[in-house]
Amino acid sequence: MNLLILTLxxxxxxxxxxxxxxxxxxxxxxxxxxLALTFILCLLTAFEFLGGTVPSAFEEALRVDGxxxxxxxxxGFVGVLxxxxxxxxxxxxxxxxxxTPRMRSEFFGLIPAYVFAMLLVSVSNNLGVLxxxxxxxxxxxxxxxxxxxxxxxLEAGWKFLVLGSLGLAFALLGTVLxxxxxxxxxxxxxxxxxxxxxxxxxxxxxxxxxRLGVMxxxxxxxxxxxxxxxxxxKPDAYREAPSPAGVLMxxxxxxxxxxxxxxxxxxxxxxxxxxxxxxxxxGLGLLSVLIATPFILVQWNLKRLLAxxxxxxxxxxxxxxxxxxxxxxxxxxxxxxxxxxAKPVTFFSAGTLxxxxxxxxxxxxxxxxxxxxxxxxxxLVLGSLIVMGSPPFGIFFSEMTILRAGFSGPHVAVxxxxxxxxVVLFCGFAYQIxxxxxxxxxxxxxxxxxxxxxxxxSTSTAxxxxxxxxxxAFYLPAWLLALIHAASAVVGGGV
Length: 495
What we know:
Layout: H1 3-20, H2 24-50, E1 56-57, E2 62-63, H3 66-95, H4 101-122, H5 127-145, H6 151-181, H7 195-200, H8 207-225, H9 233-240, H10 243-272, H11 275-297, H12 302-323, H13 326-357, H14 362-365, H15 369-372, H16 374-388, H17 394-407, H18 412-437, H19 457-474, H20 478-493
Antiparallel strand pairs: 1-2
Helix pairs in contact: 1-2, 1-4, 2-3, 2-4, 3-4, 3-10, 3-13, 3-19, 3-20, 4-5, 4-10, 5-6, 5-10, 6-8, 6-9, 8-10, 8-11, 9-12, 10-11, 10-12, 10-13, 11-12, 11-18, 12-13, 12-17, 13-16, 13-17, 13-19, 13-20, 16-18, 16-19
């Protein structure tokens, strides 16, 4: 069987088995085993690409290049981490009588299904298949956001569905206009919507129609990425979704949506030059960073804080891609990699604290969490330092790479504003995490004092994720660096 098809088939089979067959133990084994095998297959697919082969299927509707391979591996990695963490997460909620057998089956089916949708996005070369794959992530996200079946989660789910559907409508309109701009030059059959065909036909694409298509598509897929001003679904969705699902949205959906944005950007770049879509990305990225700043400063909920952190980081990556220089693009892809490795640490530790206190609100959790839950609190501090871009961790170097590229080019003023916002964001995020973790502990007579922290599979997963994030700051495997460089060649050259 084609390795690429097998990589997609495994999580789909795991979703079917986990959702409908067997006991809880069987479902756990199927989900974790399926996602672990999926990650291994993602690595093998990436190694096949690095070996000189271009994995593809269905008339190259599915195709792996440098960008695809990088996003594929990152999504596979966060998928298996979320699955393992999810086992312990669900056990805790079952012990508290918060999960019914129906909810358990939904969880074990939806997590692998979500991973399948993320992987399908990352290997979609056909713009039509790409749109369908993003739609699948939307459907899976809605069910995960509403998983706890509360009024607030239903409200967040509807908000996400409405905004996500609006974004997808814009993306579909953009795709239609892109095809219209090259009708007669793209060939026949299913392959006429392949991204590679658009790149080949770029000089012949109709400029005005193409500009309209690019604008609509960037707005549409930018909504899924959480770029401002299309970001408003994120805080509520992240707050209500189970923590394993939150990680999938914060990393998998973000990377997948950026993959879509970059594919559209590269078509525009090949046909119109870098300025048009590059300036759009630069503006949307800077706006995202600026909008995230005040909300982080006044945030009252831990998971919403992480949502605005994701808005900040997608903005940082968009700024790097918008600057467009070789160094800036490399910095943005390096940032994507480090963010994917670090974000699970913050989500897992935040999820543990939220479970222990039955809430993610700061006033409910209280100060001094380090005295009550030292492992989760320590991991939250470590993850926050990494995500904030503190030296010597990886995100610091990716941000410095983007900043250096910005100050070396024509966008000095924009870069200066960008730098100022990053400084304020750093201080604001540090203040919020500091006041949560430090301070006097609660009076033991307080009814809100949580159950004692236990070392279980979820905590162990968070520790492993933290080790990976820390080690990556000092050592990236040669093959992963090769993938980043290969992705940079695609984004920089468009081929």
